[in-house]
Amino acid sequence: VNCVFSLSLFSCLAFCRGRIVRVPKGPLIRVMGTEVVIPCSVSDYDGPSEQNFDWEFSRETDFVRIVSTWDSTFTSEEYQNRVGHGDIKLRRSSNDAVELVIRNIQPTDQGRYKCTTPSTDATVQGNYDAEVQVKVISDGLSVSSSKAHSSTSLGLSEGDSFKLRCSAITTSPEHTHLHVTWQIKSGLAWQDILSLTHEGKFQLGPGYEERYRNGDIRLDTGANDTYQLSVSQASSVDGGAYRCLVSEWVRGADSSWQKIQEKSVEIATVTIQRTALDVVISTSNVSVTERDSLDLTCNITTDRSGIFQAEVTWYFSASPDDTLSDAQVLLSMDRDSVVSDSTLISLSHVDRNSYRLLVRDVDVEDSGYYFCQAAVWVPLHDGSWHKVVERTSAPVSVVVTALEPDYEVFLNASKTPKFSDDPTELNCRITNAQDTEANIRFTVSWYYRQRLPSDDVVAEELLATMDADWTLLLGDRSRERTQNGEIIFFKKAVDTFSLRIQWTSESDRGDYFCVISAWSRHRNNSWVKSKDVTSASVSIFWATQDYTLTVEAVKLKPFFVAGHTFEMTCKVSSKNIKTPRYSVLITAEKPLTDQSNPNGTTRIISLNQDSVVRLEDWTDQTRVDGVVLEKVQENEFRYRMYQTQISDAGLYRCVVTAWSPGGGGMWREAVNGLSNPIQIDFQMSG
Q: Which of 54, 461, 643, 654 is the S-S candidate for 675 at Cβ 3.0 to 4.6 Å?
């Protein structure tokens, strides 16, 4: 039996719930003269999604019809005037919820309010109306300025402090709490600064969190129900109209807090005068010689009166466009006139408005842009200091002229080539050097310029240059030959740099010159180039005659038939080539009817200058040893072709290349020559 009863109860709860109409739990306590909003909603209904609502009111027993969402004739005569003027209206918040809005509620509006929803359900289930009690109390809230007049005007300077007070009290018969908010309006809308809520908690407006933590914004309660806003270190954002906004809250029947009314009073209009500050360096552009002293003065002027202190910082940067974060801090003097430490730089307070920077023993690296930054600090009531304004001067350009050493440069050739592959050696010497103490270092750069028959200007090519640490940097023209040991750069003596070309070629002929660079060591042990001196050029040139090469081919057997041996010799003669050697290539020009070689010329066999034989395009596998090329004498070569065939017909030539010894045991190509053709024609020999 218990099981059956439990199952029936569960089924009823699940399927028999029906329509539910809800209004707030009462009583609702509201203040006379305020606007009252009473929500009503419906759920778990059938029919259309948009539901209608009727509102009625009862002071004692009978209900009087107020307003309806669907029946324009629903309103009773008692309420027609207020509904017609909009003092009472319905405001739909969703398809299943509306709000009854009563403007300027009066004690006569105290009573029970009933919300009813006409049925759209298939069966009548649930509740179709709900009631709530509204209690109207008198207005006991009073909000006012603590001063006799309603609003004041305050003119303040940046960094000043100010206090504003308002009074808020309630004589409500109910147990209500006050929520006090200080607001500011500098534009169109009021913004919250700081609140003391009805639950006794402090609540910050956006942007005031850090100032509240620092104690610059405070809200204190005082005697006679006063609420005081204290602002320290006022800035431009604190300028505007201030008001005290007070709301009254009561705890409802459901234990939630409900705001029942709100009032405000404007307390003051605050104007914040920005502190003027000009920061100027007394000179514009400065030029000073290396190791002298640099003297700059920063002048500050301000319209600030009363007690204040200035803070000055000097900066240095390589560019006038650098920001403070990119610049280097040189020295600073705080508001207590304490100067940061430095060995070669000093900062002194000449008078109330002037601060002198002195840099002793200046270096070239001190060239750049100098500027000073000044800040004005004012004391606060708690003994601390607040920075009210900060400005930075325009940069001043400072050029430090280096003390240049005095010296000359002389370039000469200790070895000059008479022929190709002879060595060349050039010496670049520093002479008449003065003022070249230990803080001066010399490096060299070597240049080459090609000589042209005409007067055309040819740009010089860098062969090599040296850094301040004597690291050699090679140019494109000399890089490979230097790495191979064909060109050598070295320092022959303390005052002499040398360039040696082991094997000079025709492409090396031209003009050479050197540049000696002087480097000065700075205080941080870095080296900076202070001077370049260029030598006169030295010409490397020798007369040359054109190479000539003649090749004569001779057929040894004037007549032969297919199957016999073809034999020819090539005799070579040359001029103006030093100890030449020859490489020989045998070629054949076949008739155009020969489809095996549509290009016409075939490379058969070659012999290089070291007498190494190589088969080129000879592809007859049955006659791998059918061709022979040999050196008979230094200038004579013999070619044989065994077991000749009809397909061997054509014109045969010797292609000869003359080689001369180059640097490092290498051979250098001098000139090419082509012999007369030797013809093989089997038809003629037939």
A: 654
The rounded distance, in Å, linking the Cα atoms of 390 and 158 is 12
Q: What is the pLDDT of residues 355-387, one digit of tens each?
A: 999 998 888 888 999 999 999 988 876 677 888
Inter-residue contact 417 to 441 (CB < 8 Å): no
- Domains annotated for the chain, with CATH where assigned, are 19-137 (2.60.40.10), 141-273 (2.60.40.10), 277-401 (2.60.40.10), 408-540 (2.60.40.10), 548-680 (2.60.40.10)
In total, the chain counts a number of residues equal to 686
221-228 contacts, C-beta under 8 A, 24 or more apart:
221/196, 222/165, 224/146, 224/167, 225/167, 225/168, 225/169, 226/146, 226/165, 226/166, 226/167, 227/165, 227/166, 227/167, 227/168, 227/180, 227/182, 227/196, 228/163, 228/164, 228/165
Tokens of 605: 């066999």
> CA 120 from chain center: how many Å?
67
CA atoms within 13 A on the CB side of 420: 19
Identify residue 538 by its one-letter amino acid code.
V
Q: Where are the alpha helices (DSSP H) in 320-478?
A: none
- Dist CA 310 CA 327 (whole Å): 21
What token pair was written down for 626? Answer: 């059918």
Cα distance between residue 207 and residue 226, in whole Å: 25
Which residues neighbour 461 within 8 Å (Cβ) at sequence distance 6 or greater?
447, 448, 449, 450, 475, 476, 477
Q: How many CB atoms lie within 10 A of CB 182?
A: 23
Helices (H) and strands (E) in the chain, counts: 5, 49
The neighbouring-strand residues paired with 272 are 156
Report the candidate in 346, 337, 364, 352 with the shortest Cα–Cα distance to residue 296.
Answer: 346
Q: Where are the beta strands (DSSP E) in 576-626?
A: 581-589, 601-607, 613-615
Q: For strands 368-379 and 36-43, give the pairing.
A: unpaired
* CA distances in angstroms from 239 to 185, 269, 368, listed in the order given: 9, 8, 41
* Residue 568, beta-bridge partner list: 555, 639
DSSP bridge pairs for 413: 426
Instruction: Compute the C-alpha angle 198/203/206, nearest 5°.
Output: 145
Alpha carbon distance 291, 522 (integer Å): 10
Q: Which residue has the tokens 């054109």?
A: 546
Q: In a 10 Å sphere around its CB, with 0-12 CB exposed, 13-18 middle and 19+ buried, how is residue 263 labelled?
A: middle
Contact predicate 403/480, CB 8 Å? no
Could you report the per-residue pLDDT of 37-61, keeping only the tens digit for each? 999 999 999 889 999 999 999 998 8
With helix as H, strand as E and coil as C, how does 109-124 read?
HCEEEEEECCCCCCCC
Residue with tokens 């707030």, as numbered in its chain: 24
Q: How large a percentage of the chain has pLDDT more than 70? A: 93
- Residues 477, 475: Cα–Cα separation, whole Å: 6
The residues facing 270 across adjacent strands are: 154, 240
Torsion of CA 578, 581, 586, 587, to 10 degrees: -30
Q: From CA 235, how far away is CA 211, in angstroms rounded?
A: 12
461-511 pLDDT, tens per residue? 999 999 988 899 999 999 999 998 899 999 999 899 999 999 888 889 899
Mention every residue, 6+ apart, whose C-beta is less than 8 A from residue 191: 183, 184, 185, 205, 206
**CB 487, CB 499: distance < 8 Å:** yes
Token readout for 214 is 């620092």
Run of H or E including 657? strand 650-661
Please list the residues that pair with 374 across neighbouring strands.
312, 391
Instruction: Mention every residue, 6+ apart, whose C-beta is less than 8 A from residue 207.
Output: none
Residues 6+ apart with CB under 8 A from 327: 315, 316, 317, 371
